[in-house]
Amino acid sequence: MEGYKYSDACQLAGYNHSFSLTNSEVYQKQLKDKLALLPKNSLRQPVVEKILNQLINLVNAIIDEKQGWVTREERLNNQFEIRIELARELKQSKDERNETYRKQRQRERENAQIVKELETSYGLRPTRNNIIKWRLFHEINNEDKKINAVCLYCGKTFGINDALSGEMVDVDHIIPRTLFFDDSQNNKILVHRACNASKGNLTAYDFMKLKGEEVFKEYIDRVEFLYNQKIISKVKRDRLLTPGNEIPDDFIERQLRETQYISRKSREILNQICYNVWSTSGGVTEKLRKLWGWDDILMQLQLPRYRELGLTEEIVIENSDGSLQKKEVIKGWTKRNDHRHHAIDALTIACTEQGFIQRINTLSSEKTRNELYNEVKDIKFNEKLTLLEKYLIAQRPFTTEYVKDKVSQILVSYKSGKKLATKGRRIIQVNDRKIVAQDNILVPRGPLSEESVYGKIKIIEKDKPIAYLFENPHLIVDFRIKELVEARLQQYQNDVKQALKSIKKEPIFIDDEKSKVLEKAHCYVEKYVIKYPVESIKPNEVDDIVDEKIRQIIRQRFNSVSKESDAFKEPVYFDEQKKIPIRSVRMFTGLTAVEPIRWDENNNPIAFVKPGNNHHIAIYKDENGNYQEHVCTFWHAVERKKYGFPVIIENTSEIWNRILANPDIFPTSFVEKLPADKLQLTYSLQQNEMFIMGLSPEEVQEIIQRKDYSLISRHLYRVQKISTSNYMFRHHLETEIDDSKEAKVSKKFINIQSMKSFFGYNPVKIRINCLGQMVI
Ligand SMILES: [Zn+2]
C-alpha cells in the first residue's frame, strides 16, 4: 500500500511540517511552574551539572511571578518561545576550548603581523580585503614545496604584487555567497579578475565545466594536486569540486547536531516550562549581529573613556561597497574583553526567527530566492549585498541606538564568595581503595580546586652538616646513621646543644671498625610541589621542575625555538618513540607553610593548600574612631565556623565575652587570629563582592535611588583579590585580568594599598542578583 510521506501527510492534514514540533501532542503536555535543580552528582560531569543548574536558577528567576517578566498564562498560551545557543566556549571540552583560544590568538597575532607587513613592505592599507588576499596568496604560494601561487581557473601563476596591489587578481567565493552561507577562508580563492568575470552565480566546478573537457580536466588536476601536496584543506577541495546541484544544504543543521550533551539536556529541561524551545547556531548569530549593526556597540560604549586617555586611534575602514571611511577605534580592542558581548549575542539569538534559518538552509532553492526578493524589492540597499543579506537587514528588530542604550545599563553579576565549608567526610586511600575515615566533618570549600592542591615530596639533599643532623634526625636518609644520632640525642634528653657538644669529646663512628667519624650525611628535604600544565611554563621556571629528565627535555625545547611562545606548539614527549606526551609537570613551589587537607591511612598529610588564601578583610572602627584592618584567612574562617562564631564578626566584644567566659575551650592559635576587643565592623570585603567606587556619597545615593544603571555600570567594581593592605578591584565588565599600565589608567582595575585611599573612593557595597538587578 502506498502512503504519503510524513511531511506530505502533515501538509494534507493542515500541519506545517517545518514547524512539526507544534503538534497537539506537545500542547497536551503539562507545563511546570518552576524547574527543579539537578540533584548533586546526578550527572557524570560536575561542570555540566553546574552550568545547567546556573541555567535553571536563571530561568526560575525570570519566570518568578513576582518579577512578572513571563507569566504562567503567557507560557500556557504559547505566547513565547525559548531559543538557546551554547556560548562557543561551552560547546567544547576544555582542551578544545584551549585549542580554539589558541587558534584565535594565533590568527590575531598573524593578522597583526600581516598588517605590519602590508604597511611596511607594500605600502598598502591593511583593509580586510588586503589581509584576506595576503592570506590566500600565502596559502597557495609555498616556497618550501616550490609551488607558486596559481590562478586555479587558468593555471597561470601570479606574484604577491599582482595579488595585492594590482587590479589583476580578485578574491572569489568558490561557492557564490548567493547560494551558500560560508564566508570563511575555506570558501575563498585568489583568481585573475579576467578569469572569474563571467562566473556569476556559478560554483567554481560548474563554471569550469562550461569551458570544455580539456580545460575542466586541467582544473580538476590542479585542485587535486594542491590537495595532495597538502597546500589546500579537504574542505576547500570539496568546495572546489561542488556542483551547484549538490550544494550542502545542511550546513546549519549539521552545526546544530554538533551541539552536544549540554545543548540537548538544556533543551530537555527547558521543555518542561515552555512548549517551544529552539536551538540556533553561532554562524547565524554572528551574521545577524553584524548585519543588524550591533557588532560595534561595545566599542562605541567604551570609546569615550579610552579617548580621554588617548588610547584611541583613527583608522580607515572599507565599507561593504568598497568606499573608504575614517573611524576612531580603541587600540587593541576586542569585544571579548567586555562581558556584555554575551548579552548582545543573547539578544541576537532571541531575535533569530525560525524563518531566517529556514531561508538560509534553502538558499539555493528558487522558491526561497523569490520570497526573499519580494521582501526587499521596494527597499533601497547597498547593491554589493546579497539578496539574503538584504532580507536579513530588513528584518532588524531594534535600532543600534536602542540596543546601545539598553546594553549600557547592564550590570554584570558574579557568583558571590565561595561557600566556606560543607559537612562532609574524610576519605583516605588504603591500598588503592578509598575508605571513609571520618564522617560529618567540616570540609572547607573554595580554594580546594585541583589547581591549588599541593603535594609534598621528599628529595635528598647531600652532605648536610652534623648540626643539621641533630636538629632534624627524622630526615636522615641512612637508617644506621639516623639510629646513631637518635641514640646520642636520647643520651642527653634530646637537648640538641648538649648532644652536639658531646661530639667533640666522643665522636660518632659510622663503621664497626671505628675508622670513620660522622661529619655529614644525606638528608631528605620535604618540598611542596604542584602540577602545572606544560604550556604554562616559562624558561626561567625550568629549574623548578621536580623531575630531572623532564627538566632537561623542557630546557632543550626552549633552546630549540627562537620564540618562547613557540615552545609548546608541538607536543613534548617523555620518550624517544614519542608515545608518552608530557602534559603537566610537577614543580617546586618554594612554599614552606601550607595546611593539610588530605591524609593517608597513617594520618600523614598528603595534600595541602596555601593558607594564604584570604576569606575576607574586615575594616573595624575602634573606640577612638580610628580604622583598622583585620585579615581573616580562609583557614581561620573555617575554624570560626567550627567554634560556632560568625565568620564575619561585627561586634568583637561579644566574641571576647564568650572567650573570656570559657577560656580553656579555645586554642591560643585560634584566639590569636581574632580581631581585638571593642571594635565595630564598618566594611567587609570578600571576593566578588560588588562596590560602587569613586562617587561622592550624595551621587551614590542619587544614582541608587534613580536606578541609573548606566552610571552605576561605569563605577561598578568587583573585589578581585584581597590581602593585607592590598585590595584589588576589577571593573565589572572586564573579562580579563590585565594589570598593565594602560589598564590602570583606563580604570579597568583599582588597586588600593592604604586605608586612606580606600575611603577616598567612598566605596559603597551593593548586590547584583543573577538577573543583573541591583539589590540593596
Ligand atoms: Zn587566471
Walkthrough of the structure:
The chain has 776 residues and is α+β, with helices and mostly antiparallel strands. The protein folds into 5 domains: 30 residues, no CATH class; 205 residues, Nucleotidyltransferase, domain 5 (2-Layer Sandwich); 122 residues, no CATH class; 163 residues, no CATH class; 162 residues, no CATH class. The strands form 7 sheets. The protein has a 6-stranded antiparallel β-sheet. A 5-stranded antiparallel β-sheet has the order 11-10-9-13-12. A hairpin with a 5-residue loop joins strand 14 and strand 15. Helix 15 crosses helix 17, helix 16 packs across helix 21 and helix 19 packs across helix 20. The structure holds zinc ion. The site of zinc ion has 7 residues, from strand 3.
Short description:
With 776 residues, the protein is an alpha+beta fold. The chain is built from 32 helices and 22 strands. The strands form seven sheets. It has a six-stranded antiparallel sheet. A five-stranded antiparallel sheet has the order 11-10-9-13-12.
Give every kind of bound small molecule, once each.
zinc ion
* Shape label: globular
Distance between the termini: 70 Å
Radius of gyration: 34 Å
Low-confidence stretches: 1-23, 250-259, 444-451
Task: Provide the descriptors you would attach to this structure in a database record.
single chain, 776 residues, alpha+beta, Nucleotidyltransferase, domain 5, 5 domains, six-stranded antiparallel β-sheet, 18% strand, disordered N terminus, binds zinc ion
